[in-house]
Structure formats: structure tokens, C-alpha cells
């Protein structure tokens, strides 16, 4: 059983349960922190799933919330134990975006808007190597190699026979026109993109320059949904030194509506494939 447990998702679910217990008790995070002689930020990190939760933390919080049902306590303690297990990504060492990988690994669907590059899940290895080297000029070759291997491993969600990820990607034309790794690399990348777009669980749409301003001009974002309704939808915003995860209903609703506008304004899937073919031919003529 443990091998199928996603520690990131377990931490989120446990955090939501602890928050629910606190709110039912009518206590603020500051009051709980004072009772346990810890910082308020620790309580907040435990509840939002960004911090590993020990069984001692759970025991102490259950005491504060006066949880008397041993079955509830045992269930929370088991979740805490599972949340401290390691996911497949831990084998690669320290990865700055490990929280996102954990969420992506367990997600049922992913909607992403990408204005600059082809999304990582749809990249060829040559393209990924060029993107990572260009984005991290001061990193070591070993770090580049590790990130490429992680990216290739993440792509197994696309080809998984058991539960393939439902992926919907809207790409700005700039992602297709930016020459990453050379024109031959771009031709291979666009051919790969076309191949993946034919899969029943993968949809690719293109937002051409000529369509002008649109709801995605503020930058890249992703919306992750999960198979268990107990796990709330997450909006992911990638940063240079830190990432942002939005889970409040209002934030999720705003980004979801914005994505619907993006899908409506972009070329439909068939038109998008024709557009990608055209760009690939442009590269072929330039190399010829």
C-alpha cells in the first residue's frame, strides 16, 4: 500500500482535516500556536500541506482540539505516517519544485497556459536539455542532467495505461516560434507535439499573435484537479525563486473562468495542428 501513497497529497489532505478540526473548535491559528508554544507560521504550514507533519504534531493538535474518537485520531496518525514517506522524485535529491511534482503525479487533470515554451510534459529530451541549460546558465551540467531526467520521468503520466493524465494545453505562438536548441530540434519538437495532440486525453490549442491581447497575457499558470473530491483544485504559478499555490475557492474560480476564455479564443484543436504543421514547415525551409 505504501508504494502507492503520494506524500504530497497526504499532507494536503491531513492539513485540511486539521484546519477543519480547528475551525470546528472555534480557535484561530494564533491561539493554537500559543497553546503548543510554537509559531503561528508552523500551524499555517501544517494546515496548507507545505510542511511535513509528524505523528507527534497530530497527537498534540488532537489534544488541543479535544478529539475523543480514537478512530479519528488513528486515521490522522496514519495519514501523518504516510505523508512522511518518499515519492519517486525524492530519489533525485533536492528538487525546488517537488511540491508541484507531487501534485502533478496524483492529479486527474491538468490545464496549463504556456506563453514562452512548450510545456515540460510535452517536451522532447533534446528540447528539454536546451530549455533547462538556457534557463539555468549558472547551474552545473550535473544539475541540468538531473532536471532533464526528472522531466522525462514526469512524462510517464501521459503514457500511463492505468490513469493517464488528462492534459489540456494552450500555447502562445511564441512557444512555437522561439528557437530552442536549433531548428532541427524545433522540427522534432513540433512533430512530437503533433503526435501527442492526437492522444484522446491530450488537447493542444495555439493562441496566434494575430489574436492580440487575451486573458493569459499576465503569464503562465496551471490548474490541477484530483480524482478524490476531498482534494481541492490547485492553481499553480511558477516563480524564479519560489512558487505560488492557490486553493481558495474564489482564486480557483477566477483562474478557471480565465482558462475557459483562453480555450474559447485560441484556435480549435484541428486548426492548432494545422498551425503547428505550418510552423514546422517554416523551420524546414529555413534549414534547407
From TrEMBL:
> Which segments constitute the HTH cro/C1-type domain?
18-73
Known Pfam families for this protein?
A: DUF5753, HTH_31
Q: Which InterPro entries match?
A: Cro/C1-type_HTH, DUF5753, Lambda_DNA-bd_dom_sf
Gene3D superfamilies per record? lambda repressor-like DNA-binding domains
Q: State the protein's name.
A: Helix-turn-helix domain-containing protein
Which organism's genome codes for this protein?
Streptomyces durbertensis
